[in-house]
Amino acid sequence: MKEIVIISLTTWSKRIGNIPVVLDTIYSQTYLPDKVVLNLAYGEIIPEDVADYLQKHDVEIYFTEDTKVYKKFIPTLKRYPDACVINIDDDFIYPNTMIEEFMTLHEQYPQYPISGNHVALNGMQCHCGCASLTKAEYFGNWLDKIDEELRQHCPSSDIIYTYLATQNGHPYIHTNNEYFVNGLLKPIEIGDGYSSCIIKNTGIEDSYSYLVNRFGQPKSPLPNYTNDKYIAQIIENILQQQLERRLDEMKVITERRYQSSKAYRLGRFLLTPFRWTKRKK
């Protein structure tokens, strides 16, 4: 029997205007979802134009406790425990083959959640906040461990999902294509991109340390996880891009200095044709 595929997301007042643009990329997928679910915090106001769009496309809207990013797909998992739930963000434009790739990989490895990036931590392939495929069975009763104390001590929700699924015997695998590394996802709002997440402290290590101290070391990871060399390669690519930008800046500076030099001005003077004019008497 064909599994139900649900796209689940959340948003808030400063980004809710993005929803029609984001969902347009979902409704143009080569593999269409059975449902789109939008989880909002109690009291969230939906602008009229967005409300019209949601009604026209029959998007299911549920109001829930404001657990910030955790309401992106956990309420949907609990409401539809047998469905394949693909969480997405409210500020990305998605390639139209995303769902198809998730489902193709899911058919091959139905026992594992799937991440849309290739970043590993201590041998564990990490959940991708931009897009990941999950099912309630992957977490089991471990979802109930996400209480207020855990949310307060773990800045990184992605590491929480990674750790809990691994502890439940369902470590993440990743998509074959590098959708969320190679820039096929285009942020709608200008902000910190993927490179910043690698270089800056995002609370990943703090979250991991807390989880290990509270629940113990995670179980053995999946054999085909992405090793840490991948992160090193990403950082190398970022540094290369920064170097190229710096070289381009230096070329501009060098050209300006050259054009302001005495030799350049003298050469321009000598190459400029003389214009003879009659002196006025």
Could you characterize what this model shows?
α7 runs parallel beside α9. This protein has 11 helices and 11 strands. The longest helix has 31 residues. β2, α2 and β3 form a beta-alpha-beta unit. A 7-stranded mixed β-sheet has the order 3-2-1-4-9-6-10. The chain has a two-stranded antiparallel ribbon with strand order 5-11. It has 281 residues and is of the alpha/beta class. It is extended, with a radius of gyration of 26 Å.
Class of secondary structure makeup: alpha/beta
Strand order within the widest beta sheet? 3-2-1-4-9-6-10
Oligomer: single chain
How many runs of DSSP E, i.e. beta strands? 11
Q: Helical content, roughly?
A: 40-55%
Cα-atom radius of gyration: 26 Å
Distance between the termini: 103 Å
Strand content: 5-15%
Approximate shape: extended
Taking pLDDT < 50 over at least 5 consecutive residues as the criterion, the unreliable ranges are: 181-201, 222-227
H/E series, N to C?
EHEHEHEEHEEEEHHHEEHHHH
Largest sheet: 7 strands, mixed
Number of helices, counting only DSSP H or I runs of 4 residues or more = 11
- Round the mean pLDDT to the nearest integer and report it: 81
Give descriptors for this structure.
extended; single chain; seven-stranded mixed beta sheet; 281 residues
Layout: helices, strands, pairs:
Blueprint: E1 5-10, H1 19-27, E2 35-41, H2 48-56, E3 60-64, H3 74-79, E4 84-88, E5 92-93, H4 98-108, E6 114-115, E7 120-121, E8 124-125, E9 131-134, H5 136-139, H6 148-153, H7 157-167, E10 173-174, E11 186-187, H8 194-199, H9 204-215, H10 229-259, H11 262-271
Parallel strand pairs: 1-2, 1-4, 2-3, 6-10
Antiparallel strand pairs: 4-9, 5-11, 6-9, 7-8
Helix pairs in contact: 7-9
